[in-house]
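Technical appendix A lists one of the benchmark inputs used to test multi-chain prediction within the project. The record comprises two sequence entries:
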Amino acid sequence: MRVVLRRRVRDPRAAGLTRYQQTVFNVTRLSIGRGAEQLIQIPDARLAPAHACIEQRAGKPWLRALADQPVIVNGVTKYKAALRRGDVLTLAGRHLTVEDVRADGVMVLRLGLPTGDASGESVGSDPQTLKEAGLRAARSSWALVLGVLVLTLLAPLLASLHTPLQPQLRAAALLPSDALWLPGPLHKAHQSIGGDCNACHGAPFERVTDQACSNCHPGIQHHVPMASPARALFARMHCADCHVEHSKPNQLVDTGSQSCIGCHGNLRKLDPATALQNVSDFGSDHPGFSLAMLEPEGGGADIVWQTRFAQSEFRPRPEEHSNLKFSHQVHMEKRGIKSPTGDQVLQCGDCHRADAGGRYMAPIRMEVQCARCHQLLFDENDPASAVPHGALGPMFTALQEHFSRMFLQSRTLGTGLTDRRRPGGEQTVMTHDEQRRALEWTTRQSLQAARELLEKRVCVECHTVTHLAGRSAFDQWRVEPVKLNSSWMPRAQFNHAAHRSSTCITCHQQAEQSRSSTDVLMPDIKVCRDCHGGGQDSGRLASGCTMCHRLHLPGRGDYLAVPAEHIAPLSIASASGER
Amino acid sequence: MHQSFLNIARYRYALYAGLLGAACVASYIVDCAYERPNGGTVLGFTLGGIAAALLLFLMTYGIRRRSFRGRAGGTKRWLSMHVYFGVCALLVATLHSGLQFGYNVHTLCFGLLCLVVLSGCWGVYAYLRYPTLMARERGAVAREDLMARLVEADREALAFAAKSVPEVRDLIADAILRTRLGGGVWAQLRGRDDSKLLLVPVREPGYTRLVSNRGQQTLIAQLAKHQATSQDGDAQHVVHQLLQISSEKAIVLQRLQRDIQLQGLLQFWLYLHVPLSFGMLAALVVHIFSVFYYW
């Protein structure tokens, strides 16, 4: 757009005459206003800095007001107007006349002199302090305070107070709801609760109740037996004391050891009758491991296995009485050990396998681990001569069947066990005498084989066989029952899978040298301490109480069976009559 | 040594705030050994209580500042306390948070507190730096005197221009009209000379253009051109006078612009600090309310 602007100016040297200053603009829009950057600058406070502009629309000049103030066109206030020849715009008392709009688009404008007493002063009209520029601390303070209160207090309160808006507010990701009050994310295990704060948080300004937890987690077990006076110590404890939600790192159980040490650090004073020792730190103040030893009482069918706890580090060292004869040293021989398929070098894992979960070792079973090599043959040359493992009765039956079959086969095939043949030998029915002699023979042979197995060669290699005085025939032997310990530390939890990167010998250090099954090969606490330090250890793996121990122990009774508040808080010492 | 609000009473308030901060840090480190750092532990609540008390105390500075009943130097002591305990409050609040942050009102409160303390630190910097800088740049002259000199220069220029040819007259009048000083918040803080000049081609082809007249440089160049092309001795003299006046005006204008900028920078932080403080206070109230609402 080309604009020719004729500006009427006062010329002090040509008194009474008017002079025009003509300038030509080639612009897309002609800006008009008070500001210095306006092409037609009219320095008057009545105009906005950018007041209006003239631009071309469909080839015609078009006026548009830029501020809220209108422009007077031919005496009429207008915000926009198409301009034609002869139109007069009035801006702060000055006339801007459209002298001509030529066919080639050139517009000729004439700007008159001020009609009134408008001052030409521009310097100083701009604000020169921040306050003059419109900054107000109070205004922005109020805006911020109200914004914060509406977004973070009113909207979450609406979502919290069971209003009809609650579902919408909680469901929408961008709308403010009481999720803004979450101090941290929910634990993964609780994510199914979603945004329903009231699932756990009941009445406002009340702590989360244990009842809220037991709604979803019924039957949580106690730490001490229900009848124990120590139960009183838990009267004031709530689930939320140890189970911390909305916390980072996102760990639902407070593994800090302080809650445990609160009692166990001084347990012998709290409960003088306790069998447990004080403990305050795994690395520096933890008793040696107490092993659950199985002790046989009685013998044979009447045997009862009693559990007795023994300190692993005490001398003499505790011995296992499993009634099994076993030498780890023989089996772990580096050059190998005889097997039906030749010499074999055994590894720990050939016999000791983890259970399906990988946490514990699966029990050793003769049929699974031993029978590969220990075949129960009473005739070494006959692979079919194996007796079953287990009770003696089936073994004797198997022997008798074997020798009966031998007898009958020899008779039929004439291999000459009973060499005499009667005249008219086609007769196959045995006489009573022959049957008696056959029974005597098989019994004799069976007893001889049984004696060989039980007293000399096969059973006796691993089992303790007792010869019962005053008994005869098959009743004269008793194999002492075997029970291998499957839970050495029932008060702790150990995870073999978590220690997979270590070799078995790293912890069970005596395994390769042990000659007797009475040796207890469980590691001492100092072996664990090679890698595990106390709760705050920085050099080793920091190991708090909950790494091995649990608070809720099986068989102790429902934690919330009787509301804890109903039990008067008292110390164990006073409960047991000692002060 | 000059006694500023930082070193008043031999850094006594820095020492007190430092001791409080050190005690909080020490207890935090000790407590870390026993429990996970969290705002909800016993120490967490204690630190939160200390931080909240500190913040309320710091907010009273706004009231104290307006009260003139205190003895002389009292306000300076209060400012010293305000600064040191403000930084300490941020430290205590950080420990209270256990460095657990998220998309929630608690982190909003902490974030606002950070902004408040940051803007406060900017304020400390501004108070230490800009007043001396302003005095140095403006010399011993008051701003009003500089303004008077500017108006005087404009009047002289118009008077001389009246004796000159119309082109020069228009040039001078337009330069005066389009001289900018101050302006909006951004213009004041930026301190850039946005003066313009309408350049009308005389005796040569071309269109009228609106060009920058920063530091009156375009005007001076145009006047110099006129002086070079002018044949008349009197006219040359007039233009020479105009050149001198314009140069002087440019210097005064630059000083004034710098003064407006420095004053803006000196004050601007407060327009952030005060609203952010109140916003933080609102968030603090909501933070405490929400923690106990869903306990």
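Residues 55 and 89 of chain B are 7 Å apart (CA to CA). The longest strand of chain B covers residues 196-199. Comparable benchmark entries are summarised in Table A2.
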